[in-house]
Fold this sequence. Notes:
The chain is an alpha+beta fold. It has helices spanning 2-33, 91-94, and strands spanning 40-45, 48-54, 59-64, 70-76, 79-85, 104-107, 112-117. The strands form 2 sheets. A 4-stranded antiparallel beta sheet has the order 2-1-7-6, with no helix packed on it.
Amino acid sequence: MKEGKISATRKRDWILAAVLLGAAAIFYLAGRLGASPAAYARIEINGVLVETVDLAEDRTFSVAGYNGGTNEIQVEKGKISVISATCPDKVCVNRGWAEHTGDTIVCLPNRMIIQIMAENISDP
């Protein structure tokens, strides 16, 4: 008799897990599909805006980071990526392409943050 209760409980647990996983997938996809198209990237070093980049213009350039560090940045087809950096861990390089509004790329050693924006917003 106990075995019947255990298997019924496990079955309900699996159903609940499947429902929660499905709901999470729906919310994730709805957020991605409803996201504004990225148009600009805001680059800050140590909390100071150094450049606003139009993602429609393909180019490669370097940004001087904190304490002499540098990040080489590539913009291509509406996306942005750090392709090389002087930091030791290369987390920013391994991040890959950022293309959706709200995406960020961070290089902590060089104190650089790239934020993807739908509009060109400059500091007040």
